[in-house]
């Protein structure tokens, strides 16, 4: 059974509060009306949706299914990372606050970045009410 408190003890864990702070910082940036910025953000969310859908389904697959689909899962994860990084770079190009990414940690902390994708989907779902 999943235990959120045990998850938080892991070195690469991302708490809900940390994810929310990142999300709010990003939405501060998105007050800028630049259309390309908003298009890039939509690409981030689209990639997060694709990755988290597969990651959620992962819980129900057999070992054989996981082995067969692992390359696609990795590819979807990479796409999310690439899109979030591109969005971050574009924030810098527009001279907007881009300090939020450092709080997520280095890209080598792939699990943490993947968890952030899940939090993004959760928060965007709530925002859509």
TrEMBL record:
This is dUTPase.
């Amino acid at each position: 059974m999943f235990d959120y408190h045990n998850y938080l003890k892991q070195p690469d864990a991302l708490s809900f509060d940390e994810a929310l702070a990142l999300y709010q910082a990003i939405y501060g940036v998105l007050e800028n009306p630049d259309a390309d910025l908003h298009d890039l953000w939509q690409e981030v969310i689209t990639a997060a949706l694709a990755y988290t859908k597969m990651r959620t389904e992962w819980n129900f697959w057999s070992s054989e299914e996981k082995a067969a689909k692992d390359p696609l899962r990795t590819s979807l994860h990479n796409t999310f990372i690439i899109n979030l990084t591109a969005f971050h770079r574009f924030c810098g190009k527009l001279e907007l606050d881009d300090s939020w990414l450092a709080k997520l940690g280095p890209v080598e902390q792939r699990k943490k970045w993947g968890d952030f994708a899940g939090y993004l989907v959760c928060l965007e779902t709530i925002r859509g009410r």
